[in-house]
Amino acid sequence: MSPQKMINQPIDHLDLLESHAIFILREVVAECERPVLLFSGGKDSAVLLHLAVKAFEPSGLPFPILHIDTGHNFPEVIEFRDEFVKAAGGQLYVASVQESIDQGRVVDPGHGESRNRLQTVTLLDAITKHRFDAAFGGARRDEDKARAKERVLSFRDAFGQWDPRRQRPELWHLYQGHVTPGEHLRAFPLSDWTELDIWRYIERKKIDLPSIYFAHEREVIERDGMLLSVNEWIHPRGNETHHSQMVRYRTVGDVTCTGAIASEATTIDEVIDEVITSTVSERGATRADDRFSETSMEDRKREGYF
């Protein structure tokens, strides 16, 4: 595209979101010494990594990538993670919840039980081990009311804890990224994006995703109003039966608590049509840890959760 055509090209909503996200990425790198990008293999972290590559090209990523592995993974997501990070030219660190269990840092909840909350200890241990002072995450404010409270730069104390009453003001998109030794911050460049924005950006930039985000036939059981994949950790209980159904996933997490939705959407356009008509956030609809947990997302975030 010629320079003149680029100048005349109209700027739209997605362009503004992209520009702001890139600004946040560059600002944190300029103010912090050892940032890291958290990567789950989901759609939001895929967009975030794409933006990070764009923000620092052609120099390459100035920070590593960290995945917190619960041990209860969708195989398609792990395969995608390795391929996507390699294509981005990133250095991948994997912190294992199973290792945290083996070391006695956390208690194993038992076979088939969710390990999502256990990730907090594994994450904080990895941050301490590698002396990270900033962690980029793909969280968005429209996912949960606790995340809606969080600022773009979310400061954590020496114990990794978050206090929503002690956040720094961010007027006019001015950010203060200074932290003292032992503290760190979480940075959320996608805070102002919505699920629909994410999908439209994926469509525009042709960003690859794990195949589970599109409709496919899978053996599932219905439990607590959710469709859970039958696998080595999830089996029918009591009167439950499994059946084959066309489903897709709106979010990626521990397979023991991440539900699918009935869907025939096999293309991005069809997924976007479903998102437009949805009245429930992806976490509210398909994450058991948010719907049925005894602790709220805000309580978990106070402890140091993502």
Helices, strands, pairings?
Blueprint (H helix, E strand, L loop, with lengths): L2 H6 L4 H19 L3 E4 L4 H14 L8 E5 L5 H14 L3 E5 H6 L16 H12 L3 E3 L8 H5 L3 E4 L27 E4 L7 H11 L10 E8 L2 E4 L12 E7 L12 E2 L5 H10 L4 H5 L1 H4 L5 H7 L3
Parallel strand pairs: 1-2, 1-4, 2-3, 4-6
Antiparallel strand pairs: 5-6, 7-8, 7-9, 9-10
Helix pairs in contact: 2-3, 8-9
Family: Belongs to the PAPS reductase family. CysD subfamily.
Keywords: ATP-binding, Nucleotide-binding, Nucleotidyltransferase, Transferase
Protein name: Sulfate adenylyltransferase subunit 2
Total DSSP E strands: 10
Largest beta sheet, briefly?
Answer: 6 strands, mixed
Q: Figure out the total of helices.
A: 12
Provide the structure class: alpha/beta
The proportion of residues in beta strands is 15-25%
Assembly state (oligomeric): single chain
Helix content: 25-40%
Q: What's the architecture of the largest domain, going by CATH?
A: 3-Layer(aba) Sandwich
Which stretches are low in confidence, meaning pLDDT under 50 for 5 or more residues running? none
Under CATH, the homologous superfamily of the largest domain reads HUPs
String of helices and strands: HHEHEHEHHEHEEHEEEEHHHH
Number of domains: 2
Q: Judging from the principal axes of the Cα atoms, what is the shape?
A: globular
Q: Calculate Rg over CA atoms.
A: 19 Å
- CATH C-level of the largest domain: Alpha Beta
Strands of the widest sheet, in order across it, are 3-2-1-4-6-5
Distance between the termini: 40 Å
Region (Disordered): 283-306
Organism: freshwater metagenome
GO molecular function: ATP binding; sulfate adenylyltransferase (ATP) activity
Family: Belongs to the PAPS reductase family. CysD subfamily.
